Amino acid sequence: MPSRKLTVVLTWSAVALLGASALGGIALNRGESVNSLWFVTAAVCVYALGYRFYSAFVATRVLLLDAGRATPAERFNDGRDFVPTHRWVVFGHHFAAIAGPGPLIGPTLAAQFGYLPGTLWILIGAVFGGCVQDFVVLVCSIRRDGRSLGQMARDELGPIGGSAALVGVMAIMIILIAVLGLVVVNAMKHSPWATSTVAATIPIAVLIGLYMREIRPGRVIEATLIGVTLLILSVAGGGWIDHHPAIRTWFDYDAPTLALMIIAYGFAAAVLPVWLLLAPRDYLSTFMKLGTIAALAVAILILHPDIRMPALTAFIDGTGPIFGGKLFPFVFITIACGAISGFHALISSGTTPKLLANEADARFIGYGAMMMESFVAIMAMIAATVLDPGIYFAINSPAGVVGKEAADAVATISSWGFPVDVGQMATLAREMGEASLFARTGGAPSLAVGMASLFASAFGDGLLALWYHFAIMFEALFILTTLDAGTRVARFMLQDMLGNWHPVLGRTGWYPGVLFSSALVVAGWGYFLYMGTIDPLGGINSLWPLFGIANQMLAAIALCVATTILVKTGKASYAWITALPLSWLIVVTSSAAWEKLFSPELRVGFLAHARDLGDKLAAGLLSADQAAKAPQLIFNDYLDATLTAVFMGLSWILAADTTRVCYCVLAGRPHPPSSESPRIPSRLTENWVRD
Fold first, then answer.
1. pLDDT at 560
2. Residue 142 belongs to a domain
3. How far is CA 575 from CA 131, 153, 230, 423, 560, in A?
4. Neighbours of 53 (CB within 10 A)
5. Which of 53-62, 438-447, 629-638: highest mean pLDDT?
6. Is residue 430 part of a domain?
7. What percent of the chain has pLDDT above 90?
8. DSSP readout, 454-485?
9. Residue 413: CB partners within 8 Å, gap ≥ 6?
């Protein structure tokens, strides 16, 4: 064996051994503290092995990537939606678009079960599920003229499965975008620092878009340096604005006003040329995202704090205070985007295939970006679990579970075996610049506390409040980049649907159709978003429990389409790469949906909760205030139940139709033909290495 080959074999063997040792240390330790370095080590080794070997196998044996094949960005270059773009800019856009609240919030909430279940699912689910889904769907869309997921389902599965996919994907998409919008609004309301910084990214993005296209074409490094510098200045400026008594009022808005601003921004992001706003803004946001996560990793390496949360808590039986439900299936639903996300498939079949200049880069962007998002989820898990468990539960547990008064809350939490006291929480809130940290549910505040504690210990112990508000702003920026890309993708999907009825409406180059479809999409999610901000009892708040289930069902739909395409293109022997995660998702999402529908537990089952509330209302057992709210809450439960049943039904229709079509292909029976476009040689001469 040549010495170079031997060195490579020994190196990767060492990586595999180190990764196995780190995973063993995480999984097998009981009753002893586990150092956070083991988490970082395990993640880096697993991702390195997955990218080097598994993604290479998928690229070379299954998908047969072709660098000489013209992509839709080259063939349909219209200067607005289809634009050949530098691979690093595409990576930045794709990562920024897919990396929303899931990898930050999901692991933080799932820590209720302990650190072990969530960590293992993040690593295993990403390498064999999420990364594969994003990669395969991206290549499928590239080879089908950049078509959306719903349209590919209609083309490949036929009218039954295709119609179910189109309706399901569009409905789920509207809900997901509305939920993302509400999370952004809640993070930015009455926060001039977050609002001013996020607002500043818009003109900065326009400037960088013009710089790379009109002023200094192709000078990506120059544009990046200018953009990142301005972005850092905007973050610092946001802190100055927040402390200026007069100027801060210019950026201090309530939730309904911010909702209208986000609706207007979503419309602009959907209709303006992609190179002018969406791609450069997402690209620059990626530097803040990856920079912050890298800084968090450095802080962990410097401090290497011990994990304080146990591997498994008593709440795996479904009695958890943060959300109801047992370890299976709800840890998988809660983690969501950190392991596999259906929303990613919409980006992989939406904006990204219309920007990619070289098909060979699909592995780097599709598999690699999801791998980076999974690493973000690992960082979030660490930030949540290095907190004292008592503090973690005090921040995340609703007042209705632990008590409205601080003394009641700490007594309840301490009785679970996680001691905490009122003075400890008061001191922490004061250090973070907050009035109180009790019952700050949703995951974002506790994640910000964990990040701020690590940053302050590593880089500046007297700046806890600064780091806390930076983390809150970072989370808002993280999520908004998913909302704008999601809106544009939803516009593509709607145009595909309308094009089946009236062909001219499906043309992305016909601007009246672009404006019309964008307005419909924004009106759809904008309505739910605005209603959620003015009615805290109803609107989009009632749809939040559906977020994880809908997202995972959307992933199942994407894997149905991918599996069908692999079988049709003669790769049936390799279809297991998508069929196995598809089977797992069908089991998990169906189990979760069934429990949300029919569980007798009031904190889990929608119907049980609605019946209980209705009975109490009829018997006069509710206070006047509770009685006034009850009808809206009952309506919300029935709405949740209806949507859950619809989504579950659609996913089973897709699974059955996928099985039918694959059987027809293998048995030589009539089936819808492959919609793959003919191969056209690429004529691009730009090698993208001018800098």
1. 94
2. yes
3. 15, 17, 46, 57, 10
4. 12
5. 53-62
6. no
7. 35
8. HHHHHH-TT-HHHHHHHHHHHHHHHHHHHHHH
9. 390, 393, 394, 397, 402, 419, 420
Residue type, 149: L
1: in domain: yes
- Count: domains in the chain: 1
> Residue 672 domain-assigned?
no
- Looking up tokens 């929480």 gives 425
Segment 395-446, tens digit of pLDDT: 888 777 788 788 888 899 999 989 998 888 888 888 877 767 787 766 667 7
Please tell me whether residue 69 adopts helix, strand or coil conformation: strand
- Cα separation, 271 vs 255, in Å, equals 25
Smallest CA-to-CA distance from 335 within 278, 284, 376 is with: 376
Which three-class secondary structure state does DSSP give residue 522? helix
Tell me the two tokens of residue 570.
């003669």
Residue 668 backbone dihedrals phi, psi, to 5 degrees: 75, 25
Asked if 106 and 334 count as a contact pair (C-beta separation under 8 A), the reply is yes
Contact 231, 197 (CB under 8 A): no
CA dist., res. 187 & res. 444, Å (int): 8
Instruction: Report pTM.
Output: 0.85
**pLDDT averaged over the chain?**
85
pLDDT band at 105 (very low <50, low <70, confident <90, very high): confident
CATH value at residue 363:
1.10.4160
Range of the domain at 151: 1-189+253-397+441-535
